[in-house]
Specification:
The structure holds 2 protein chains of 2 kinds. Chain A is of the alpha+beta class. Chain A has 4 helices and 20 strands. Chain B is an alpha+beta fold. Chain B is elongated. In chain B, the strands form 3 sheets. Chain B has a 7-stranded mixed β-sheet with strand order 7-6-13-5-12-9-10. At the A-B interface, strand 15, strand 18 and helix 4 of A face strand 1, strand 3 and strand 4 of B.
Chain lengths: 298, 206
């Protein structure tokens, strides 16, 4: 069999793609790559159609051994990526030979890197997607001893991302948000407090959502009937500490929402390490849609 | 009905803010009218709202609203299958599998047999699906057997457990943590069948 032997799974790794569409009515989480921007580039580098085959979303500590040749693309966080103990440049393709050891030794900047192989890892789609969703037992987290199969590929057509397009995950993060339809549930002074404060990313942050810590915000209403939750929604639960809901969010919920972080900034948030600080600023729908359309043309 | 912007590529449609069958019928009707429109990617219907994700390559936030209003205006109020499909759930009610059955009876000053009769008499509607794949929130439970959630959720509720929490009842589609009162067990296993608006009846077996 050709593929990668998992020598060490690192902090967390799972197979992802652009996520599941069209199943929210069944209660299935959208899931998909947390930093979709970096994921899309991994696909583009390998010239995958519609930029959607699949990739391994991984964190520091992962070590793999190749049993066959392939071409890979690495994007996202800088995790001190090495091939056979030799540090190599990320946001580009590399040729891999049988026996090569790939390692992501430590976090330098960002949190999650994407490792894509030419033509994708071989696995079955479920509900039309390769994305792992732990709480639904769709797929599973990658573990030591697992085998990630791919078709061998020997050619190498070297591609790299222009530096202009490579994000700097160290920059202070200001999350742009659309004030939501539930804005009315927050008094003016609560909103002012929210925009004037800095929030810290807490340990309780994962693929489902990022829990932040800072000035507590008090909604004037809490008795919300459960309703669908959009990507990037900021829920204010009891206690007033905001939660930004991300890719593996539940489909419905009943907490008041102060607004919705635009997808491009959710992708950056997914790269923010625990303890880092974020602030919020408003954006209008026209501008947000313009940015999103530009992103879709990537 | 109101339509609000919920995110860069989603809108939310609200009907009257009440949990009742009339509002649910409106949600269900809107879902059926909108679900196959090109450029609508995902719809999450729930109690009194529909969250709609659309393709911003095809619509902007104004044109999608126009499109939605246009389609909703077409609705035929005499839709034949108004209550959705009826799904019957063969249920074993016993103290062995329904570990809270005796407690539900006691809290409501009923016999176990009465709890079973009351639970099977109502035809429930699916008001929402969420929490996990195929977890359907069914309402409304007859007020005689309304029972609050457990103070401490259990770490593991077995798949197929039938449970009550407040005015709602549900079937656990797989093993999971949960704080609802377990009154029975089913072998029913086709949870992707449930759609918001469908009707569900429990049938006592054994």
């Amino acid at each position: 069999m050709s593929g990668f032997e998992v020598l060490n799974a690192g902090l967390f790794a799972s197979i992802q793609d652009l996520g599941r569409q069209g199943y929210a009515h069944l209660g299935i989480s959208h899931s998909g790559a947390m930093d979709e921007y970096a994921y899309r580039w991994s696909q583009k580098l390998l010239q995958h159609q519609k930029q959607n085959q699949n990739a391994l979303e991984l964190m520091a500590g992962l070590r793999l051994k190749a049993t066959a040749p392939t071409q890979i693309a690495i994007t996202g966080a800088n995790l001190s990526f090495k091939i056979n103990a030799q540090e190599v440049t990320i946001w580009q393709t590399h040729q891999i030979k049988a026996g090569d050891i790939l390692s992501f030794d430590k976090r330098v900047s960002g949190q999650r890197a994407y490792l894509a192989v030419k033509e994708g890892f071989i696995l079955k789609k479920q509900y039309r997607s390769y994305s792992t969703t732990l709480k639904e037992n769709i797929g599973a987290r990658v573990q030591k001893g697992d085998f990630l199969a791919f078709n061998p590929y020997s050619a190498h057509n070297r591609q790299r991302v222009k530096s202009l397009y490579i994000p700097n995950y160290e920059k202070p993060l200001i999350l742009r948000l659309l004030l939501s339809y539930q804005e009315a549930y927050f008094e003016k002074k609560e909103k002012e407090k929210f925009f004037a404060s800095k929030y810290e990313v807490t340990l309780q942050s994962d693929r489902m959502g990022y829990r932040l810590k800072g000035e507590a915000i008090t909604p004037s209403r809490t008795d919300i009937i459960s309703e669908g939750i959009a990507f990037g929604s900021i829920q204010i639960p009891k206690g007033g500490q905001p939660i930004v809901l991300l890719k593996e969010r539940q489909t419905i919920g009943g907490y008041p929402k102060i607004g919705t972080v635009i997808p491009l900034d959710c992708f950056k948030l997914a790269q923010a390490p625990i303890g880092s600080q974020v602030a919020f600023e408003k954006i209008g729908i026209e501008e947000a849609q313009k940015l999103m359309k530009r992103y879709m043309q990537l | 009905m109101t339509i609000q912007i919920s995110s860069v590529n989603t809108l939310i449609i609200y009907f009257e803010e009440r949990i009742c069958e009339e509002v649910l019928d409106q949600v269900q009707r809107a879902y059926r009218l909108l679900k196959d429109i090109e450029g609508i990617i995902d719809i999450t219907p729930s109690y009194h709202s529909l969250l709609i994700e659309y393709d911003i390559g095809l619509y902007d936030y104004k044109s999608i609203q126009k499109q939605i209003r246009h389609h909703l205006a077409k609705q035929n109020p005499n839709h034949k299958d108004k209550k959705g499909k009826l799904i019957k759930i063969p249920t074993l009610y016993s103290e062995a599998v329904g570990i809270d059955l005796a407690r539900v009876a006691k809290l409501n000053a009923l016999t176990i047999q009465e709890v079973i009769e009351i639970h099977t008499q109502t035809i429930y509607r699916v008001y929402a699906i969420g929490f996990m794949l195929g977890f359907a929130y069914l309402a409304k439970v007859d007020k005689q057997i309304v029972t609050p959630r457990l103070a401490t959720p259990r770490a593991k509720v077995p798949k197929g457990s039938i449970a009550i929490a407040e005015h709602q009842t549900a079937i656990y589609p797989k093993d999971s943590a949960g704080g609802w009162n377990i009154i029975g067990q089913t072998k029913f296993d086709d949870f992707t069948q449930f759609e918001v608006g469908d009707s569900v009846q429990f049938v006592s077996i054994g």
